[in-house]
Design goal:
259 residues, 8-stranded mixed sheet, 8 strands, Rossmann fold, alpha/beta
């Protein structure tokens, strides 16, 4: 299904459905299309699903960082005046979500991380071979997923186009290095929101032990693994992903039992 991309000042975003906001943050090579299965499911089940387009290539080089993206998300949420937010991030988007929750917890009702950076990751973007190596980019894109067929030609072409544009390649490297530097291990104890961790059991970018470490460090968290699944569960196995997320959100919104 195609959704309208709204333009509001410097913000471009999808906003579908009505209810508590479910705000989705994509990763370093991600796009709004990564979340189509989530938008389809939750926009018709009592949630306002919001996907801002993160300015990965639009910030000046000094602010092309996890912190710069977090400030953008903060300005977007303030501008839209969302509250009781369920904040979901994949990969670098998870890292941005973590920094946002640590700095601005008051608007967030729950946090959902899938394949998040912030503790450890095998990056694709911290270095590149010479531009023009399509097969290298194809292989790197394929290992994001358990099933290499998930890396369609369209997706590989998109990544190849990014890394072949010099300024974009420089900014990808800047963001990847920023993510590696910005380790949140000592700050995760500040997060009080109920947190859902959904991890691919075959994730090679942020392997399963990373999910377990997030669970250990975030006190009110639960961890679910999806078998035969890589770094982007909401793309590779959206049905399984949506079931886990739906159950978590339902449980949050159930009235507390009277003793």
């Amino acid at each position: 299904m195609n959704y309208e991309i709204k333009n509001d000042g410097k913000f471009r975003y999808i906003e579908e459905g009505e209810g508590e906001p479910l705000v989705l943050l994509h990763g370093l090579f991600g796009a709004m299309s990564n979340f189509m299965g989530v938008i389809d499911h939750f926009s018709t089940r009592g949630f306002k699903v919001v996907v801002p387009l993160l300015p990965l290539f639009d910030l000046d080089l000094l602010h092309t960082s996890v912190g710069g993206l977090q400030k953008f998300v903060y300005k977007f949420i303030e501008h839209k005046d969302y509250s009781n937010i369920h904040l979901l991030g994949n990969s670098l988007g998870g890292h941005v979500a973590l920094v946002y929750v640590i700095k601005h917890p008051e608007r967030v009702k729950s946090l959902i991380l899938t394949g998040s950076s912030g503790l450890f990751e095998h990056g694709m973007g911290d270095s590149y071979p010479k531009r023009g190596d399509y097969e290298y980019i194809k292989k790197k894109t394929e290992i994001t997923f358990y099933d290499p067929q998930t890396a369609t030609k369209e997706l590989v072409d998109e990544v190849y186009g990014i890394v072949n544009e010099r300024i974009k390649a420089i900014k990808i490297i800047a963001l990847a290095k920023s993510a590696i530097r910005n380790n949140l291990g000592d700050e995760l104890c500040k997060i009080d929101q109920p947190t859902l961790l959904i991890w691919g059991n075959n994730d090679t970018v942020t392997p399963p032990f990373v999910g377990r470490e997030f669970q250990r460090l975030i006190r009110n968290s639960e961890l679910h693994f999806i078998d035969k699944c890589g770094h982007a569960p909401m793309m590779e196995l959206p049905g399984d992903f949506n079931i886990i997320l739906h159950q978590f959100l339902q449980k949050l919104n159930q009235p507390a039992a009277v003793e």
